[in-house]
Design goal:
The complex is a heterodimer.
Chain A: H1 2-11, H2 19-30, H3 37-45, H4 49-58, E1 70-75, H5 78-81, H6 85-95, E2 101-106, E3 118-120, E4 124-126, H7 131-141
Parallel strand pairs in A: 1-2
Antiparallel strand pairs in A: 1-3, 3-4
Chain B: E1 3-6, H1 11-15, H2 18-31, E2 36-39, E3 53-57, E4 60-64, H3 72-77, E5 89-91, H4 97-100, H5 118-123, H6 128-133, H7 138-148, H8 160-169, E6 176-181, H9 190-197, H10 199-213, E7 217-222, H11 227-238, E8 248-253, H12 263-270, E9 294-298, H13 299-311, H14 313-317, E10 320-321, E11 324-325, E12 327-334, E13 340-345, H15 350-357, E14 367-372, E15 379-381, H16 391-396, E16 405-410, H17 415-429, H18 435-452, H19 459-472, H20 476-480, H21 482-491
Parallel strand pairs in B: 1-2, 6-7, 6-9, 7-8, 12-16
Antiparallel strand pairs in B: 1-3, 3-4, 4-5, 10-11, 12-13, 14-15, 14-16
Helix pairs in contact in B: 7-8, 7-10, 9-10, 9-11, 10-13, 17-18, 17-21, 18-19
Classes of the chains: A alpha+beta, B alpha/beta.
């Protein structure tokens, strides 16, 4: 972890308002922001540990525990609600109960004409997701029912 | 000679399988020994036709859509690389009524150009605004924006020229240009489409703002939910070279806090802090990012600027109605048959958008409620569908246009549940600084739950709570959550009984 952190710190030396970019890079490298990283970040940016902790916990995006093998996010905002996202979210929760997948709601992916939508890991998007299509996508991910 | 094809790289097209279609086209071309150049353009915004593939022929671009991977071999067999006939052939997409009726200004290049090519952007008329701004004084650039009547497109509709003049008139060694690309409202995607489909337009608008107020540093704060937009902006900035002169722009990734779309919370976040709303005054124009004078505008506001400079303020001001000048890219979302992007001058009606463009509900059931302006916007019943789309007409009926997002619901919607969701969203996303928003939203959920449980005597309490939130909150998060709640209660009272 320390080497990864040092590389990230070096990259952001002298950057104004560097805390969020540093946290993003740490989460990108490790999958989450470990508690042990907090004092190191605080020292690097001359902040208190409380300030760093406060920022990590304020933003929905940052996680403090490792995620599953995949992260699946179901859009639960109004435009997807209008097309049945609530039923999809309930189905997904049931389907992934025992899977090594982190299931999260997301409030808008900006694909509001073609919902319900889901996002798998960072960049994979799927539109018009029915429960049946969801199951097929999870099967492709290698997640057994 | 190779044949040029356009397969959108827009996130919505990707969600509908555009990458797979692009790969299938490349593979099929390889098999038949034809050289093709596949350009990943933005989306034209007709999402029911995505993935929409266009082929450049000597007679112009010929569109096919929606294209599935399984259609690709059949399209090759139908000689589509030379505009051949096929059931999916749409001809010149710009003649499609959905596009032909629009008047695209800010998004006119989206879907047309290669978003990765500055050369293409300049060839399609980009860059003229910046070139003209370089020949004018700062005050003259600001005057041009003031005369155009442009108002902030993020939702608050504050006159852009006044904001810029305040920054110009404030003396400081360092000033900043900040783009608010934290497009968190459900039902909105015009910022995303522009960043992915025409990133240089936003960059040019920000560079012009820099000249107008004397700033050499810009930030674009983009939601973490938009990784494709972030990538498109970074590609564009890397290849901008010396086009921007001494103006530099950095893209910053947000971290999933809705309230960071509020300008002062956004500035806090850019500074590396919790996105807590600041009290105003001082205005960001006087003391903004790192305490310096800052222009902070939405993506579409900046994207409107190059054309205003290139074509003159009078051109832009000639569009629209009343005090709402120019165009607004409306986004048709939710339960509509033909969802997509419709950029038209202010003055058309909601009904035209919902039925003439949107084609009514996707489910085939009657439309019952339409939320305009995101999670903090009012729900409108069918009796209000003839409202003219301009800022003042919407304010007059207790609604907002916001960022132009329009989310349609059919008659299966439970409006008391939607009202509860509005309070729940506020409780989840409140920054916590002021009491009416932080506590009021949670009390709101409880009161609505009691009403839904049959205790209708609680309705006056809900109204009183909304009153406190409206007048006692620091920013739009708390003060506008009552819009969806009260509009649901006023127009759909039967759902609360």
């Amino acid at each position: 972890m320390n080497t990864a952190l040092q590389t990230i710190f070096t990259k952001h030396k002298g950057m104004e308002g560097a805390l969020l970019p540093i946290l993003h890079d740490i989460q990108h490298a490790l999958g989450y922001v470990p508690e042990e990283a907090v004092p190191l970040i605080a020292k690097e940016l001359n902040l208190s540990r409380a300030e760093v902790h406060g920022v990590i916990t304020y933003y929905h995006h940052f996680r403090q525990t490792p995620p599953g093998k995949h992260v699946v996010r179901v859009c639960c905002a109004e435009a997807c609600q209008a097309n049945g996202s609530e039923a999809l979210a309930a189905h997904a929760a049931k389907r992934l109960r025992n899977a090594d997948v982190t299931l999260e709601p997301v409030y808008c992916l900006g694909l509001c004409s073609i919902g319900p939508n889901i996002q798998i890991d960072e960049t994979e998007l799927h539109a018009h997701v029915t429960p049946k299509k969801f199951d097929a996508l999870m099967k492709d991910l290698g997640e057994k029912a | 000679m190779s044949i040029t094809l356009y397969v959108p790289g827009d996130a919505a097209a990707l969600a509908l399988g555009a990458d797979e279609v692009a790969a299938a086209i490349a593979a099929e071309a390889g098999k038949s020994g034809v050289k093709v150049n596949v350009v990943r353009n933005g989306s034209r915004g007709l999402f029911w036709l995505e993935p929409l593939v266009e082929v450049a022929t000597p007679h112009g671009r010929v569109a096919y859509g929606p294209v599935d991977v399984a259609d690709v071999p059949k399209l090759f067999a139908a000689n589509f690389l030379h505009g051949g006939k096929h059931a999916l052939c749409l001809g010149d997409i710009e003649k499609h009524p959905y596009l032909a009726k629009q008047q695209r200004v800010s998004l006119r290049r989206v879907g047309v150009i290669n978003p990765r090519s500055l050369e293409d952007y300049l060839w399609q008329g980009g860059g003229k605004g910046l070139a003209r701004a370089r020949q004018l004084s700062s005050a003259a650039v600001v005057q041009e924006i003031t005369d155009s009547g442009l108002r902030g497109r993020g939702g608050a509709a504050f006159p852009t020229g006044i904001k810029w003049k305040t920054v110009l008139d404030t003396r400081a060694a360092q000033k900043y240009i900040v783009c608010n690309a934290d497009e968190g409202d459900s039902g909105t995607f015009s910022d995303r489409m522009l960043m992915e489909g025409d990133p240089y337009c936003l960059i040019e608008g920000m560079a012009i703002a820099g000249l107008a107020v004397g700033a050499n540093k810009g930030y674009i704060y983009v939601r973490s939910e938009y990784p494709h937009a972030i990538a498109a902006l970074n590609v564009a900035l890397e290849s901008a070279g010396d086009w921007l002169g001494d103006f530099s722009i950095e893209v910053r990734k947000a971290a999933g806090a809705y309230v960071c779309g509020e300008e002062t919370a956004l500035l806090e976040s850019l500074e590396g802090k919790r996105g807590i709303v600041r009290s105003k005054p001082p205005l960001p124009a006087i003391s903004g990012l790192f305490g310096q004078p800052t222009v902070i505008n939405n993506v579409i506001t900046f994207a409107s600027v190059p054309d205003i400079l290139a074509q003159g303020a009078a051109f832009y001001n000639s569009l629209g109605v009343g005090r709402s000048r120019g165009t607004l890219p409306f986004q048709l979302a939710g339960n509509l048959k033909f969802g997509g992007l419709v950029e038209v001058p202010f003055g058309t009606t909601l009904r035209e958008l919902l039925y003439d463009y949107g084609g009514g509900s996707r489910s085939g059931r009657p439309l019952r409620a339409v939320q305009v302006g995101g999670p903090l916007g009012a729900y409108l019943p069918a009796s209000q569908f003839d409202t003219v789309l301009d800022y003042e007409a919407f304010a007059a009926i207790g609604a907002v246009l916001g960022h132009g997002g329009i989310v349609a619901f059919d008659d299966k919607v439970d409006m008391a549940k939607q009202a509860r969701y509005a309070m729940q969203f506020c409780a989840n996303e409140s920054c916590g600084k002021c009491t009416p928003c932080r506590i009021g939203s949670t009390r709101g959920i409880e009161v609505i739950d009691r009403i839904r449980g049959g205790d209708t005597a609680q309705i006056p309490l809900l109204r009183s709570l909304c009153d406190t939130m409206t007048y006692g909150s620091m920013c739009a998060m708390g003060s506008m959550t009552p819009y969806p709640v009260l509009s649901a209660l006023n127009h759909f009272a039967e759902d609360f009984e």
